[in-house]
């Protein structure tokens, strides 16, 4: 089984020039380096693109599953977090510049 797989992988990554050398004993094309892009092209189409598509589908499904079960974080007031030595220079002075009431907690807890 391992020998068959090894032979198949070797044959898959072999260039056309290398195959011509094996068959005819010499290559009349342009040497041994001709056709080196072909294994990379095969890898791109048969490994890379399907992997990207599978990862995107997985991310989408995990996101959909996560959206079905929203959970709120329990607020724990720690004495070393959210220390306000002076007010913010915008708004009411208690909200940060990019404050999100669903995600960012104030010193006393979440707003929502």
From TrEMBL:
Subcellular location: Mitochondrion inner membrane
Lineage top rank: taxon: Eukaryota
Gene Ontology CC: mitochondrial inner membrane
Pathway linked to the protein: Energy metabolism; oxidative phosphorylation
Keyword annotations from UniProtKB, A to Z: Membrane, Mitochondrion, Mitochondrion inner membrane, Transit peptide, Transmembrane, Transmembrane helix
Keyword Transmembrane among UniProt keywords: yes
TM annotation in the entry: 43-63
Family under the similarity heading: Belongs to the cytochrome c oxidase subunit 6A family.
Identification of the protein by name: Cytochrome c oxidase polypeptide VIa
Annotated organism of origin: Dendroctonus ponderosae (Mountain pine beetle)
């Amino acid at each position: 089984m391992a020998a068959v797989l090894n032979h198949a992988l070797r044959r898959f990554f072999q260039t056309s020039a290398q195959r011509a050398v094996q068959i005819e004993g010499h290559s009349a094309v342009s040497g041994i380096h001709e056709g080196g892009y072909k294994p990379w092209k095969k890898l791109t189409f048969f490994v890379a693109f399907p992997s990207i598509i599978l990862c995107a589908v997985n991310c989408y499904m995990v996101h959909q599953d996560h959206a079905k079960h929203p959970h709120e974080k329990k607020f724990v007031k720690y004495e070393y977090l959210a220390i306000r030595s002076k007010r913010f220079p915008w708004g009411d002075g208690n909200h940060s510049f990019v404050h999100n009431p669903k995600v960012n907690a104030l010193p006393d807890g979440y707003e929502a």
